[in-house]
Design brief:
This protein is about 40% helix and about 10% strand. By secondary structure, it is of the alpha/beta class. Helix 1 runs antiparallel to helix 2 and helix 8 crosses helix 10. The longest helix has 20 residues. It is globular.
């Protein structure tokens, strides 16, 4: 049943969703933007159009927490914005934290903390969180620099230390359940080492199609730009544009401008969020350096399990660090494992791992 908008604010947000998602299907006010196929770049478009049409500044993380027409409309109205508003309003926002609440539920089950991939964004996990069951709290971890003008961190150890501090503010005591897709798995792995060194209990590190650490030299600027285009094409599910213009000897700022034009022309990124894209590239570039250079000092004494995409081209070989690595496979490649068709299978495997972790340690509903 489609619930239609009942206020001018809701009507405007419905129109924004329809425009950005390019859908002809009716959108219900309780439909989740990410369940409808929205991604983080499109979410940035939503917040940009909310500023233009409803005169209200809403951050991406606020939109993650209010991703329906109804919830976002309430946020806009509470801030004093809306249709016909005069000055620019701003939805109240707490101090920035890398922890992004994706699903918060009452109960004693330990929450899942899941680290961003190389993009730095936690949006990939928004739809996943709702498929892990109504009793499972899920918090994403988002890279510094995506929403605020700070220098991104480019070492896995530094990211892990920052995230452990934030996680312990959210949940002071264990047990902890950690996960991460791609590069995020490396950060979760390092977080487990830091937490166990501090005497905390980690019941699971779940690596989602994460490459084995190599401690290698990262690509140069042109190589990083090419990887960014590959990543965006994989996320959006469209072909890459011709990147023959990327060659040495040209000012990197000029190359980045040309790259953004090519990505926009290929439909991989929207045209109206250029400042957001520049921040995203800086974060991506820092994360690429962190990903390549990371080599763990030692293995944390915790269960480390893998879920790999069957058609992925990620580097395998975790046996180099872990003599036994329980591994499951899910349909898709590194990107399509998150598609609408494949996500239920991935979510079921993650849920099975979470249930098994609780059973191993007798957590149940008792909590600790």
């Amino acid at each position: 049943t489609v619930t239609p908008p009942t206020t001018p604010t809701e009507q405007q947000i419905t129109d924004i969703f329809t425009t950005i998602l390019t859908t002809t299907n009716p959108i219900s006010t309780d439909d989740n933007f990410f369940d409808l196929g929205g991604n983080s770049l499109q979410a940035a478009q939503v917040t940009s159009l909310v500023v233009q049409r409803l005169r209200t500044t809403v951050t991406l993380r606020q939109f993650y927490a209010a991703p329906t027409v109804l919830a976002l409309g309430r946020l806009v109205d509470q801030a004093g914005g809306g249709v016909g508003a005069g000055g620019l309003a701003a939805a109240p926002s707490p101090d920035w934290s890398p922890v992004v609440p994706l699903q918060e539920v009452a109960g004693t089950q330990p929450p899942l903390f899941i680290v961003h991939a190389v993009s730095g964004s936690a949006y990939s996990y928004a739809a996943l969180a709702r498929q892990l069951g109504p009793d499972q709290s899920v918090y994403g971890l988002e890279a510094p620099g995506l929403e605020e003008d700070v220098v991104p961190l480019d070492r896995v150890v530094d990211l892990a230390e920052r995230y452990v501090q934030a996680v312990r503010r959210t949940r002071p005591n264990g047990p902890y359940l950690l996960s991460g897709w791609s590069m995020g798995g490396l950060v979760a792995f390092e977080m487990a080492r830091i937490l166990t060194d501090a005497g905390a209990r980690v019941d699971l590190v779940l690596l989602l199609d994460s490459p084995v650490p190599t401690g290698s030299e990262p690509p140069d600027t042109i190589g990083t730009m090419r990887q960014w285009a590959v990543d965006l094409a994989g996320i959006v599910g469209r072909p890459m544009p011709d990147l023959d213009f990327l060659h040495p000897g040209v000012d990197p700022d000029i190359l980045l401008d040309e790259l953004l034009d090519a990505l926009t022309g290929a439909g991989l990124v929207p045209a109206d969020v250029r400042d957001d894209l520049l921040r995203r590239y800086r974060v991506f570039s820092a994360n690429v350096r962190a990903n390549y250079r990371y080599l763990p000092d030692r293995v944390p004494p915790v269960p480390v399990h893998l879920i790999n995409a069957v058609d992925s081209d990620q580097d395998r070989g975790w046996e180099r660090f872990l003599p036994e690595v329980p591994t499951r496979e899910v349909p898709g490649d590194h990107y399509t494992m998150w598609s609408t068709e494949n996500l239920p299978v991935l979510a079921a495997e993650i849920r099975r791992e979470l249930d098994a972790a609780r059973a191993r340690r007798g957590i149940g509903d008792a909590g600790h």
